[in-house]
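Folding problem:
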Amino acid sequence: MATPRINGMRMNYVPDPEKIEAGVRILAEEVERAWREQDPS
């Protein structure tokens, strides 16, 4: 079996649900930080 490689933005394998969860959590933190830096109120 070949090693899973990321080609551009397309992934040819199904990633680990745990990795997805971790990625989403990191992404959420980045978004929250950006919102806080904007300070719309």
About this structure: The chain has one helix and two strands. The mean pLDDT is 80. Residues 14-40 form one domain. The CA atoms of residues 9 and 15 lie 13 Å apart.
